[in-house]
């Protein structure tokens, strides 16, 4: 749809997406209503359906897609590299900084996953696909580090990538009530230790 | 309240709690209604308020408490030990079996955490407290293994415990859309590798 919008239309559409994202963070998907979004963005019902003919479900999916893009962008250029220890550590720092910048220890995508699984199969499938794509990029990174001799050749990149992404998501879940990054950092650093422990050169005590 | 209930009253109350737990798994907290619980349990409105005077919020908190108790019980007796590798591996297997037995790759407590954070501060505080208690038991286990010489004395038990619990919660989140335990097992096993890597005796290549 974006291709047919004027610049002003594009801005309005984006304003609606961002305001909806704020409402989801504050009240969950269940606590988000089109009336609330209209009030926050001073838009009319017909404007809302002009930009999002599928109503709330379409709008929530567009929020998830936009937040997924933001999240990936925050991890660049490192996420596309990860062939060195420096790259892994820069990736880890960029990710922690991204969540810190959100002002809330929550993954905009991951925090929707359970509610989506229970209420909107299409949204749940989209979130699962975003997680698989993210996991795939981490697995590619493990393979690059492995090719460079930084990880044991016997390590399974897919399993390590799943463990790293689990550390991100589970770490955020534990960080949220503590209002601190320490659980996220502890989880991420433990996984970077796993990678490092597999490196032949670091197996020397 | 339990103390003043007849055996039959206790059974009815428990039946209501379990039916509510099923509704939360199927539709989230937001998708759970007292009318739905009444229909599923064939109870009257006055019965429901007799057992749960605080209405839906009280009922959801009782579900979380009951599910938290079930989850801890499933990890016994290992969770109270964890002083040996055998104990850690038996704990890991019992936990995976527990989630397998639920028929759904989700933590009954963890899957409520994000929605609770957005909608019910008292419930969110209760879930956070349950997570801290669980994390504390894992940290005690790391200390016992450390005292037995199984973990490097320089390792921080609180950080390792947070990383292990993050692996459980994040692993479940990735397992759910895959309908498979492999991401959970990959995340858990990576963390057990971290513990093991810290053991002086296993640092020998």
CATH topology of the largest domain in chain A: Tetracycline Repressor, domain 2
- Number of separate helices of chain A: 9
* Rg estimate of chain A, integer Å: 19 Å
What profile does the largest beta sheet of chain A have? Answer: none
Mean pLDDT of chain A: 90
Low-confidence stretches of chain A: 201-205
Order of helices and strands of chain A: HHHHHHHHH
Q: Given this structure, which CATH class of the largest domain in chain A is correct? A: Mainly Alpha
Q: Which oligomerization state do the chains in this entry correspond to?
A: homodimer
| CATH architecture classification name of the largest domain in chain A | Orthogonal Bundle
Which structural class do you get from the secondary structure elements of chain A?
mainly alpha
Euclidean distance between termini CA atoms of chain A: 58 Å
Number of domains of chain A: 2
Largest interface here, residues on each chain? A-B, 58 and 58 residues
Instruction: Give the fraction of residues assigned to helices of chain A.
Output: over 70%
Percent of sequence in beta strands of chain A: under 5%
Q: CATH superfamily name of the largest domain in chain A?
A: Tetracycline Repressor, domain 2
